[in-house]
Amino acid sequence: MERQVRERFERIEGILEGIAQRQDRFDRQVQTTRKLAEAGIKMVTQLAKDTRELKRSQKAFLDSFRTGGNGRTHSR
To answer: Left (φ > 0), alpha (ψ -120 to 50) or beta: where does 69 sit?
Structure first.
């Protein structure tokens, strides 16, 4: 009887070790995914900031045409 119990225990122990290894692999994948998501969020945030700056610059450029002239003033 003791031999059967020991064999069963060893089988259970092997199963638990396999589960632990898979859990470790899963944890690493989750961490990698988290890092990728964080990097993506930073990129999107920077892109939004750059887009706002470009929009401001473009508006100033176009407004300079609307106010007329090429920088020279004509007094009459």
So the answer is: left
Tokens representing residue 1 in the block: 């009887």
pTM recorded for the entire structure: 0.59
CA atoms within 13 A on the CB side of 37: 6
Spatial distance between the Cα atoms of 64 and 56, rounded to a whole number of angstroms: 12
Run of H or E residues at 45: helix 2-66
- Split at pLDDT 50, 70, 90, the class of 33 is very high
The ranges assigned to domains in the chain are 1-51
Residue carrying the six token digits 């064999």: 7
